[in-house]
Structures are given as C-alpha cells and as structure tokens.
Amino acid sequence: MDKLAKYQIIQEEIKKQIQSGAYLVGEKIPAESQLMTIFSVSRHTVRQAISSLVNEGVLEKIQGSGTFVVEQRKAQAQSGNNSKTIGVITTYLSDYIFPSIIRGIEEELRENGYSLLLASTQNDTDNERDSIEMMLRHQVDGLIIEPTRSSFFNPNLSYYLQLKLNQMPFVYLHTAYPEMDAPVVAMNDEAGTELATEHLLGLNHRDIAIVSKVDDIQGRNRLKGYFNAFEKAGISVSSGHVLTYETHTSAGLRGEIVKLLSADNRPTAFVAYNDQVALMIEEAANECGLLIPEDLSLVSHDASGMRLNRNGKALTSIVHPQDQMGKDAARVLLKAIEQPGNKCESVIYEPRLIIQETTKKLGQ
Questions:
Q1: CA gap 341, 120 in Å, rounded
Q2: Which of 35, 100, 125, 192 could bond to 322 as cystine, CB 3.0-4.6 Å?
Q3: Which residues make Cβ contacts (< 8 Å) with residue 327, sequence separation at least 6?
Q4: pLDDT tens-place string over residues 231-241
Q5: Which pLDDT score, from 0 to 100, does residue 1 have?
Q6: How far is CA 331 from CA 104, 142, 164, in A?
C-alpha cells in the first residue's frame, strides 16, 4: 500500500474528527495557523488538505469567515455521489435468524434500486464505532442499525448525534438507544415473554425459571414480561430461578443451568431468551438425566426452526418475523430518505406463540 502524503494524512484526520462529532455540521474548523501547529506542517500542506476536502464537499470555505463542515447530504450532492447504497449494521451476520433478516432487507432494497453494505459489531462498541466510520466513508444514503449492548450507556452516541445533524436517516432494529430518537422495527418483547410465561402457568407450572440476556434492552424487556405474568397470576417467583447473562459471560451459562437443575427446588419449566439458549437448556437437562417435555417444559423466543438435539422435537416458541422485519426496516428507511421531513413511524410486532412439542401439562 502506498504511503499517504502529509496533506492526505491531515485530510483523513479531519474527516475522522468530523465523523466522531469533534467538528459538527456548520461549525468552523481550526484556522490554517492552528492546523499548522497541530500537525507540525507547512501552510502549503494544510491548504492542500483543505482544498481536497472542499473539492470532496466535506468542507466549505466562506470568504472572510473561515472553513466550515458541510451537511452530509449537501456534501454528497456536491461530490456527485448517487450510489443509492444503504448501510446495515447488526450484531451478527451469518448465523441464527440474521441471514433471514438481511435477506428481507436486501430484497426490499433491490426492488427499489438500492444496494446493500453490511457490517457486524459482534455486540462490541468498538466494532460498532468502526462500522459507523466505515459507512460514513462510503457515504451511504441511510443506515439500518441494531444497537450494541443497548442496556448500557453507549460511548458512540456522539456518532448518532452526528448522523442526525448530517440529516442522514437511520432506523433501529430490535431495540433503540433511548438517548437518540429514531424509528425502530422490533418485537414487543415484554408482551412476548408474558405470553410465554402465561402458557406455562396455564399448564400448572409454578416453578418456572427464566434464562435471559441482560446487556441488551430486549432481554430486560423479556424479564419484565416474565415478572408481569407472575404478578397478574398472584404467584411469587424464586430469585434462584432467574438466570441472567451478558455476551461476554455466555460461556459459563450452561454450567449455571446444570446447577439450577441439580438443586432441590429445581424448576419444572423454563423460558429461554432465544432458541439457541433453549438448546443449551436441553443439553444441561440431558446431563442431569431429565427429558423434555416429560420432566421439563421449555418455551423459547424466535421460532427459528431449530429442534431439540436429542429427539428432534420442535420448540414451543414466540414467533420472530425475520424476513418481514428486514423488509419493514428497509421500507421505513426508504420512506425517510425519499420523503424527508415526513415523520416515519416505528413498526412493533405483537407476539404470537407457536405451541409445539416441548411443553406439557404438569402432572400428566
């Protein structure tokens, strides 16, 4: 790879500062003399960098006033960019329900003449920052973003503010950052787990455990739905029957489930965060000599098509729209791009439980 010239290094650094929100839209960047000091270069080198950024439409020089950051869409128009590309940033890409979601997005975009640029965060905020920076470098027309570790403060919120200031439309997938408003396409996770738990309560189960992820808002909402169901039924919950985990602690989850199933007051049923966790519960049950549903009923989320490993039984599970979610996310975003100024509504799917072979009435 060719070594960048000094002016190109300055050019890239100024772009990075704009993308990070250090220089905001409409804000004046430091004067040439200040940039000379910051980068230890000549005035000629600074002027080369600024001139290139002006030509790209990133900066705008106003006679007698200085050099200012240009709004993203204006920059794209000035540079002649009309790529009609949408960026999609999800936590994962190649497994579980994500390929179906992405397929739905791609189909809808293709029908409307747009192409797709993909990135994944692996539920890591550093990766999220890099993904957003990459999308901005490619001057995408809009973004579909699945938040990363949404239960916690996100250090990348300045990037989301910059997207808003640049008037770049974006749509959340699965949940939203509460600090930064934008349309969201998501499940009603609270109602979903409430429905799943009520199903088990209706089968006379009282010792119902839940295994839920808690570094995303979806998991927090699912926990709330679980407690809602018990509150409405007037039944208390054993604190030991609530297992939580985060992305970085999931490796030890199976061992925690085995401990719970080996306890004297073991649960007779489980609500799983998703179908992947449900299969982990099955593995732990098998290790403890328990069969599903003969000894342990199991309800899950996502209806991904996964089946139990031991006997191939289909999971009782809350339906996730997958392909439809992808299409709807693309539709909401395209409306925001093509009808600027019009309010775009969120899409929230109400839960539907598919009753399969992993639940059984207690005592039968």
A1: 29
A2: 100
A3: 104, 105, 107, 108
A4: 999 999 998 99
A5: 43
A6: 10, 12, 19
Distance CA 266, CA 207 (A): 8
Q: 3-class DSSP state for residue 43?
A: helix
53-104 pLDDT tens trace? 887 778 888 777 788 887 665 555 455 555 789 999 999 987 889 999 999 9
Which tokens belong to 180? 């930064």
Asked if residue 361 lies in contact with residue 139, where contact means CB atoms within 8 angstroms, the answer is no
DSSP per-residue string spanning 206-249: -SEEEEEE-SSHHHHHHHHHHHHHHHHHT----GGGEEEE-GGG
- Residue 252 per-residue DSSP state: G
Helical ranges in 269-322 per DSSP H: 275-287
Residue of 73, 72, 100, 105 lying closest to 88 (CA atoms): 105
Distance, in Å, from the CA atom of 359 to the CA atom of 293, rounded to the nearest integer, reads 5
Query: What residue type is 132 in one-letter code?
Result: I
Pick from 99, 92, 103, 108: nearest CA to 146 = 92
> What residues pair up with 41 in beta bridges, in sequence order?
none
The four Cα atoms 353, 358, 361, 364 give a dihedral, to 10 degrees, of: 160
Residue entry with tokens 């000035």: 78
State whether residue 279 is helix, strand or coil.
helix
Question: Sign of torsion, CA 185 190 196 198?
Answer: negative
55 by Cβ neighbours in 10 Å (0-12 / 13-18 / 19+) ranks as exposed
Close Cβ partners of 95 (under 8 Å, ≥ 6 residues apart): none
Residue with tokens 């001139």: 51
> How many angstroms separate the first and last alpha carbons of the chain?
70
Helix (H) or strand (E) holding 190: helix 189-202
CA-to-CA dists, residue 93 to 89, 179, 245, angstroms = 9, 26, 21
Tokens of 2: 């060719």
Q: Taking each helix axis from N to C terminus, what angle separates 72-79 and 43-56, rounded to the nearest 10 degrees?
A: 90
Alpha-carbon distance 226 to 123, whole Å? 24
pTM of the complete model:
0.79
Q: Which of 188, 238, 248, 179 is nearest to 209 (CA)?
A: 238
Residue type, 20: S
